[in-house]
């Protein structure tokens, strides 16, 4: 198994308490795929003006047209930025690489909330989680007969985002000469290095992993007062400064290197506060997955720069909620069909080395950074709200019976091709230190492209998993849904500008969505079907 991370796809399944790994290739079409091209500048500006005609007053439209004309003058700033984008397109995989320095938590990272299983003892919960990573291998994906890029799957494991002063970098060690053979485990804000290979090169069995995780839990019973992981919730430039300070100490440097080079981060959480009903239970699970619940709960039990698998253990209700968090999307397919009662864990006959605790020397400066990160995160957490509902009236079967697309029935897709080009030009101006052109500070531009009230996404799942997408900026809603055969799982989340201004109400929007679905189906039922 020396090439555990050298291939792209992974299939894990349980057989005789062992983890078996299969790696089919899926990058065969990668070199044949064209790079994204930069659209013609004039055409994009024409489309932009056309989109404004529907809602701007004549005088506003005329003003914007003048700004666009100035932007398009030969030899002017528009042409300069266009040439810069075209150069970027030649030298990068994607010319639309805006350097967002926002915090990863809430604003940039994605997550998936999976359905819970009723397993009451901690060892049973650990075993279930370890046996949960069961999925079929994924072939090359196609759209309209054309192969899609699968490279994102290659960087799921053994990758880490490193904070930079102006631009972050991606550390990727899966194809190095000495690929990592360990994972990072976090419990009560304390970090551990856990080797998942035996000395003979074989993977640890599920029983062995259970023993090791139990050792970690028993050796970290107290919550760390200085959770270093919470620093990864800060703005990227702020986190970069703290990162540089941490790296001045050799012990810290070794611990950071162990975390960054690990295959993935496994976060072992405890329960959230007990709640009275299923609705609040779902909200608590969402918050725990999305941001950890804040500095008083599990936000410090993360390393948001890496892919994290978050497991909730010892829930007071006796239930268990497996949670997947990862800065990349569509990473795993979870299978929960094994409902057998977990058997007792057998102590491995061969002695296992103790997991290695990772230590950090916290200076007064770093301690202050941690406190500021806590305050910053708690402000963001207070401004996030969510409503998770199950629409039980009908699902995809009823919609398909009326010869309609289920996804089209739930939402209308918004095309952002024009917005992407203009956003790229804005980023290019910032990259080249060119004063922002007036066309991008015009009120018309702000109305159309700088503020999105609602974003939507669908996750196709047979297991009831729900996505949690980024809330790109304050004052926005995000709606995620999964259309099942006879029902629709829906999640509505929002981010307020401040905790003193509560204008968004996910519960109200969720009710309005339910009413709209019912009204649409009623209309279909009451309207006679006309044969073509």
UniProtKB/TrEMBL annotation:
One of its GO terms (cellular component) is peroxisome. Keywords: Acyltransferase, Transferase. The active site is at 326 (proton acceptor). Residues 38-418 form the Choline/carnitine acyltransferase domain. The keyword Transferase applies. It comes from the Eukaryota. One of its GO terms (biological process) is carnitine metabolic process, CoA-linked. GO terms for molecular function: carnitine O-acetyltransferase activity. The keyword Membrane does not apply. Pfam families: Carn_acyltransf (PF00755). PANTHER family: CARNITINE O-ACETYLTRANSFERASE, CARNITINE O-ACYLTRANSFERASE. Belongs to the carnitine/choline acetyltransferase family. This is Choline/carnitine acyltransferase domain-containing protein.
């Amino acid at each position: 198994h020396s090439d555990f991370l050298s291939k792209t796809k992974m299939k894990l399944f349980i057989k005789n308490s062992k983890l078996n790994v299969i790696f089919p290739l899926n990058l065969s079409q990668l070199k044949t795929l064209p790079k994204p091209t930069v659209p013609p500048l004039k055409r994009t500006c024409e489309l932009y003006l056309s989109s404004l005609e529907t809602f701007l007053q004549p005088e506003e439209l005329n003003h914007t047209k003048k700004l666009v004309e100035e932007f398009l003058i030969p030899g002017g700033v528009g042409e300069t930025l266009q040439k810069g984008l075209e150069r970027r397109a030649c030298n990068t995989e994607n010319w639309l690489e805006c350097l967002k320095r926002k915090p990863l938590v809430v604003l940039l990272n994605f997550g998936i909330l999976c359905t819970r299983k009723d397993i009451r003892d901690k060892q049973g919960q650990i075993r279930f989680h370890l046996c949960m990573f069961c999925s079929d291998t994924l072939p090359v994906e196609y759209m309209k007969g054309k192969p899609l890029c699968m490279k994102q799957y290659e960087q799921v494991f053994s990758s880490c985002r490193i904070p930079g002063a102006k631009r972050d970098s991606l550390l990727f060690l899966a194809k190095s000469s000495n690929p990592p053979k360990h994972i990072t485990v976090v419990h009560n804000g304390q970090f551990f290095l856990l080797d998942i290979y035996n000395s003979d090169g074989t993977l640890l069995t599920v029983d062995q992993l259970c023993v090791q995780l139990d050792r970690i839990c028993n050796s970290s019973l107290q919550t760390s007062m200085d959770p270093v992981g919470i620093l990864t919730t800060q703005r990227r430039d702020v986190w970069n400064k703290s990162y540089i300070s941490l790296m001045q100490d050799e012990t810290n440097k070794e611990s950071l290197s162990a975390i960054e080079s690990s295959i993935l981060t496994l976060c072992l959480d405890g329960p959230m506060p007990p709640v009275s009903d299923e609705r609040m239970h779902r909200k608590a699970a969402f918050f725990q997955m999305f941001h950890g619940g804040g500095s008083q709960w599990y936000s410090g039990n993360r390393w948001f720069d890496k892919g994290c698998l978050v497991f909730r253990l010892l829930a007071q209700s006796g239930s268990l909620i497996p949670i997947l968090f990862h800065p990349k999307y569509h990473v795993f397919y979870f299978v929960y069909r094994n409902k057998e009662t977990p058997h007792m864990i057998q102590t491995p006959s061969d002695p296992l080395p103790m997991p290695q605790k990772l230590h950090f020397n916290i200076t007064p400066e770093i301690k202050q950074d941690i406190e500021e990160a806590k305050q910053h995160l708690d402000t963001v957490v207070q401004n996030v709200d969510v409503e998770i509902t199950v629409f039980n009236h009908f699902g995809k079967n009823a919609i398909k019976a009326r010869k309609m697309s289920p996804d089209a029935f739930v939402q209308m897709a918004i095309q952002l091709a024009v917005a992407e080009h203009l956003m790229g030009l804005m980023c290019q101006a910032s990259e080249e230190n060119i004063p922002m052109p007036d066309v991008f500070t015009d009120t018309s531009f702000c109305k159309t492209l700088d503020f999105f009230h609602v974003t939507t996404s669908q996750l196709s799942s047979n297991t009831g998993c729900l996505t949690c997408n980024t809330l790109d900026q304050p004052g926005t809603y995000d709606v995620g849904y999964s259309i099942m055969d006879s029902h629709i799982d829906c999640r509505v989340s929002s981010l307020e500008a401040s905790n003193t201004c509560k204008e968004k109400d996910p519960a109200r929007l969720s009710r309005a969505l339910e009413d709209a679905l019912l009204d649409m189906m009623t209309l279909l039922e009451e309207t006679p079907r006309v044969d073509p």
